[in-house]
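Q: My collaborator sent me two sequences in one message, no labels, and asked for predicted structures for both. Can we handle them in order? The first one she listed is below.
A: Yes, handling them in the order given. First sequence, followed by its structure tokens:
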Amino acid sequence: MKKLAPSILSADFTNLASQIEPIEKGGADIIHCDIMDGRFVPNITFGPFIVEAVRRISDMPIDVHLMIKEPDRFIHDFANAGADYISVHREEVVHLDRTISFIKSLNVKAGVVINPATPVATLDDILSAVDFVLVMSVNPGFGGQKFISYTLDKIKNLNSIRNEKNLDFLIEIDGGINLQNAAEVAKAGCDIFVAGSSVFRSDDIAQTCLKFKSILNAD
């Protein structure tokens, strides 16, 4: 079953509870939280206190994507705040195996992220250790960007590696996902679909989630 993970980066923070309620009604599976520090990416979003607030609002799993410098310093804080998934960038983390092991030690699913221009080959030695791989299909830092088409090949590549080596990591995609391209990405082998503006800026959030779920699991 393929999962929909609406990103609250595009939600209305003046009343977050009213934004989360319709994604629950629409059958969304995961709440995605984009954490930016203004250093690793050119934007600043929020910290563990928002994740903690989301946890109080909803029982849905929370997926925390750390687009920050030195993420190891904050992993424990986000785990304590209620994160169920935490991912870190291959481009930033020097001792990746150590970081993945640390995340898992906190009883949290551990993921690694690659930017559009980062080759899948850089993950060869860590794929057996991670719970999921997040492929960025836009350059990280801002919501509402257009899907970068060549990142679809990364999904296909990861899916092939997973099948050939009999690995069980999930494949997640983030950036420019909408109702028009979701089916193609699903066919490529993706499991978790992060969608921000296409969900929260739609006329009917719950109906949009239902449409996404129908497309993702059409087979």
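Q: And the one she listed second?
A: Here it is, processed independently of the first:
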Amino acid sequence: MPTKVISVANQKGGVGKTTTTVNVSACLAQVGKRVLLIDLDPQANATSGVGIDKIEGASSYQALLGATTLTEKIKKTAFERLDIVPSEVDMCGAEIEIARAENHLQRMSAALAPIIAAKTYDYILIDCPPSLGILTLNSFAASDYLLIPLQCEYYALEGISMSHRVLNQVRDSGINPRLQLLGVIMTMFDSRTRLSAQVVSDVRDHFKDTVFDTVIPRTTRLAEAPSFGKPIIHYDKYSAGAAAYEVLTQELLQRLEKNHAAPIA
């Protein structure tokens, strides 16, 4: 099977985007898949979330500008079959520099091409910045699928509408015709409140089968794990958060195998 590239994105911050990227990556690696996690967010939370230090010059910045290769930026994590291209604060300048470059929307595609050709990984997951700027558009242009985490709160639908629109623009403009929506993940679900249940119901009514059956709960253990530099399955494998991400990963793999993913109309 060729390497599949998945962007995890939502221009709204605080929706569990990085938590989802890190934990799905770790769960894929746990079930035997070879995974590369690319942290494109200047906040570098996915980097620290797998226990990697934020080191100046370690990010994909120079690779996106063509000054080095992305392969040279890959680092092994402490977790078997899970590697990462870290991020750090210099990625803040990448938006401006890449915008000036030739083929500015295809820089990530070009950087990833040798890695994909080498067939070193089964999956490449890209943690996008919480915006729809140049870095996120580069990720969309290089990806096969888009995964959208959505927080269980009233403004949830606002968070998906712009991502949805940009996905269609990227596909329809010819920048990346193969880009498909893999699905919407409901995160930070609080079973004690009616609000969470109502939001999930509303989103399912609106987006139908696009929404994953698995809902990610809001838990203390899930919130603690990044401060220890570990995905939840390595921090507390018997927790509710670990169980949720393991089930979600199985559901995600089933969708990929069935080619269930489809663009939003």
